[in-house]
């Protein structure tokens, strides 16, 4: 455990001075994050840019400090642990839920496993609950860290490889839309991405509102820690019948290990099936390219079903992306529609207490009503599950049946099957945003 004498926790917003400099407290914090993730130190230009993005997100930065400096060691002004939070939204496909986003979690190797993460996380989730935020979210560096704090995997993405030799064809594509893809200036993507991403976000269950840095991340402006943009990044837009951009792709040619001419798709956001297939038709028909790789494909991707040769589409990996942590089960359960009607009592276990209780869930016509009947999980409830499992099932990222077979949802078989029918979704939730 941490000793409150040894560590001091400070919270602050990014400090930017009018003369273009970053406050020493903000700079030390950002450099600590870089060290924590084994990244190159910032240059003055990239430091300023990063601080501006953090300020634009209105992030609350937490730093943990030790008032002790050994000769030649990093100064006491540099935090030994970092943690940041900001407000965004989570799309349930029907509504946008306010969400408490957590990022930049680091603990210096010389201070690890002394409870600093646990302390920062517990205090942060308590503040979010006190601010009536219904849910917390993060993307994780390792899958073994956050379950203990009530987070569950809520969305996954596939890494895909497309064979774009002569095998590639999309026979089901409406030819009328093909001509509406056009190359765009790299810089133009930042101008149009906001609107396209907002439309995608509102309609896509599992999507999280993007942080201020995202346009610069996807158009090559952020180029590792180099001052200058990555000029290998290219872009194309898809236009609807009225000439309004309704999808975009950014991509770059990369050196592949096996000497196959390869393009990596950096970001592809489409507001509907026409723009989605139109953009893939463009990417799949780039001359001189034999293979396209994308690491953020949806797990129920329509693309292989649109391809003449489905074997030209290979899934080479699948990763968790979004982790959710329900703080207010009533607000969350009311924020989605359901596939089956019925009435069940749910006992929710939560080691941190925020979501613990017994809840009556009634669904009629796909619309829920929820009532808390006890502040503890009652043993006589129809179904019992912990908050991480509820968070994974919430948007349909994990099916109730799979969680039950994994031993994570308990209850009478009929009640579990009924819950599964109620929670079933037509499409897997999909998040295309790392944060
Ligand atoms: C949302 C994000 O930002 S994801 C990025 C996370 N950060 C990184 O991966 C950077 C490198 N790693 C680190 O900085 C640190 O090791 C951290 C942040 C992962 C952990 O910080 P610590 O202060 O050492 O964690 P703390 O001592 O509070 O441990 C809390 C619990 O998590 C466990 N834990 C901590 N790190 C890990 C890990 N990497 N894998 C598995 N369990 C872990 C501890 O054993 C402890 O378990 P318990 O309380 O159930 O007994």
Kindly describe this structure.
With 435 residues, this protein is α+β, with helices and mostly antiparallel strands. It folds into 3 domains: 7-133, Gcn5-related N-acetyltransferase (GNAT) (Aminopeptidase); 157-320, Aminopeptidase (3-Layer(aba) Sandwich), CATH 3.40.630; 329-386 and 399-423, Nonspecific Lipid-transfer Protein, Chain A. Helix content is 25%, strand content 30%. The chain contains 11 helices and 19 strands. It has helices at 24-36, 44-56, 116-130, 188-203, 214-218, 273-284, 303-306, 329-334, 387-393, 400-405, 413-423, and strands at 7-12, 60-66, 81-91, 96-107, 135-138, 152-153, 156-163, 181-184, 234-239, 245-254, 262-270, 291-298, 313-320, 323-326, 342-349, 357-364, 367-374, 383-386, 409-411. A 7-stranded mixed β-sheet has the order 1-2-3-4-5-14-6, with helices on both faces. The mean pLDDT is 95. Acetyl coenzyme *A is lined by residues 36-37, 102-107, 112-118, 138, 140-142, 144-145, 148.
